[in-house]
Amino acid sequence: MSEKNKAILEAANAAIAAGNYEGFLSFCADDTQWTFIGDKTLQGKAAVRQWIATTYVEPPTFRVANLIAEDNFVTALGDITMKDEDGKVAHYSYCDVWCFRDSQMVELRAFVIQTEVEPQRTT
C-alpha cells in the first residue's frame, strides 16, 4: 500500500509540474483537507482548486529530496521554486505529510518556509 501511495503522489506532483492542475486534482478525494501549518486550512476539492488557480500562476518547480511512505501516509521533503503574487521568483522548503484513503489523497499537513535563496542541489 505505501509504495502505491508513493507512486500516486509522484504522478500527482508530475501533473502539477506540467501545469495539469485538473490532472493533479483527480488524485484528491472530494472531501480533501489541506492544512498549511500556521496559515490556513482548505476544505474540499473546490477550495483546493481555487487555491491552486491563484497560487500557481505558472507551474512550480519541485525538488523532492525524500519520499517516506508507511501505511496510509507519505511524507515528502524538498524545495519548491515558484513566482509569488508580484511575479518575483520565490523559494521554499517544505515537508508535506499526505494521508491516503482508497488510493486518493484525502489530507495534507504542509509545513512550508520561504527561504532567501534557491536551495542547493544535492547529488
From TrEMBL:
Entry-linked InterPro entries: NTF2-like_dom_sf (IPR032710), SnoaL-like (IPR037401)
Q: Which domain of life is it from?
A: Bacteria
All copies of domain SnoaL-like, residue ranges? 10-107
Any Pfam family the entry gives: SnoaL_2
The UniProt transmembrane annotation reads: none
Cross-referenced PANTHER family: BLR2505 PROTEIN
What's this protein's name?
Nuclear transport factor 2 family protein
**What is the protein's species of origin?**
Vasconcelosia minhoensis LEGE 07310
